[in-house]
Design goal:
It contains 16 helices and no strands. By secondary structure, it is mostly helical. The chain folds into two domains: 65 residues, no CATH class; 252 residues, Up-down Bundle (Receptor-associated Protein), CATH 1.20.81. Helix 6 runs antiparallel to helix 7. It is elongated and about 100 Å long. The N and C termini lie far apart (96 Å).
Length: 379
């Protein structure tokens, strides 16, 4: 009994029909150290290294001791210290992982617990590595697709600020001495440039604040999550995001089924991968499955399956290979999502270049428009 007083532990055990012979507080395990900043426990790397050592013939404790001895990162070293301490107390590996949910997700713990009954921990780790590698590949593709448009926006913004804060005020000084009336759009542009030039310190502070806010949004998990939640609600992206979440759902359920987890329980364990609306539909789908409906019918009835997913899941139910068919469904969705990301990035880059070019071109034309008017009047 963990996390309760001695009297509470005795009461709970007696209520379960057990007779308490002795109470031992045990030695205190090292407390879980919260990870700070960008320090994260690399679960995928941990699984890959553990799998390599197990395949080499080491037992679980020897493999973990080896990883603990070679680890130089403080966060991972603390996690492995706690894992080894709890293992030496006699707990199972899955119970040890379950005691640290901030580092080991429920799906991971469930697959390890199932492997303890069958004795195929290396195979389970290989399945999880493949599952996580697919997700990481999609995430890296999204990040790489966003880098070039972000650089375009940054460079275009700095060029525009340079024109407004440095070039435009010098044109304004020339036009003021000419004594001619300026077109209203050029006059407005020159007024903006003059204001930026005259209040350069304030403009610099505002620029620093904007950059600091942008950095906070990029590097802060809370800020990034808030921005993403708003962006992903856009009609253009919402449907694709739902499809991506469903692909993760299919792959996670496939992983759990392959590990021996019952279908209904597996569906309940991966609800966190879906949005709020999808979670409500999944609850109805899970209830239908528990009442005896087939998974394919329940998914279609709750709008959680595309035509391709429905066909593949139905084949898996007939052939007894539901886990493999769910994996193929997820792979089909991932491939479609990757093609969409590639097409969108190819379209977005020229669109952004066009927009930036138009903005800079408008600024330049408005600066030279009085000169064009003067040249026309002289002619």
């Amino acid at each position: 009994m963990h996390g309760v007083s001695e009297s509470e532990a005795v009461r709970k055990l007696v209520a379960r029909g057990l007779r308490v012979l002795a109470v031992d507080s045990g030695s205190a395990a090292p407390a879980a150290v919260p990870l700070r900043g960008r320090e994260r426990f690399g679960l995928l790397l941990f699984s890959q290294e553990l799998l390599a050592l197990l395949d080499a013939g080491l037992n679980l404790t020897e493999a973990l001791e080896t990883l603990h001895a070679k680890e130089r990162q403080a966060a991972a070293h603390d996690v492995l210290t706690r894992v080894l301490h709890l293992l030496r107390e006699g707990r199972s590996f899955s119970d040890v992982l379950a005691s640290m949910p901030q580092h080991f997700p429920e799906v991971y713990v469930a697959t390890v617990r199932a492997s303890e009954r069958t004795g195929d921990l290396p195979q389970t780790l290989a399945r999880y590595i493949a599952y996580q590698a697919q997700f990481d590949a999609i995430r890296k593709k999204l990040v790489s697709a966003a880098i070039y448009p972000a650089m375009l926006l940054v460079v275009g913004g700095f060029v525009t600020l340079f024109l407004l804060g440095y070039v435009v005020p010098r044109f304004a000084a020339v036009y003021e001495t000419s004594g001619r009336d300026l077109p209203w759009m050029s006059a407005a542009l020159l007024a903006v440039g003059r204001a930026i030039y005259q209040h350069g310190a304030m403009a610099l502070v505002a620029l620093v604040l904007v950059l600091a806010a942008a950095g906070w949004l990029v590097f802060s998990g809370q800020g990034r999550q808030a921005v993403l939640s708003k962006v992903l609600q856009l009609p253009v992206l919402a449907r694709r995001v739902d499809e991506f979440r469903m692909a993760r759902f299919y792959r996670a359920v496939s992983l759990l089924l392959a590990a021996g987890i019952p279908l209904s329980r597996a569906m309940g364990m991966v609800t966190g991968l879906l949005s709020g609306e999808q979670q409500r539909r999944l609850l109805r789908c899970r209830q239908a499955v528990e009442e005896g409906q087939s998974l394919s019918v329940a998914l279609v009835a709750t709008s959680l399956a595309s035509p391709v997913a429905e066909s593949l899941v139905r084949v898996g139910e007939r052939s007894g290979q539901l886990a493999q068919m769910l994996e193929r469904t997820a792979q089909f969705s991932d491939d479609d999502f990757a093609r969409w990301v590639d097409w969108t990035s190819r379209l977005l880059e020229p669109v952004l270049m066009t927009v930036i070019g138009v903005v800079i071109g408008v600024v330049v034309v408005l600066m030279y428009l009085p000169i064009f008017d003067l040249a026309g009047s002289l002619q």
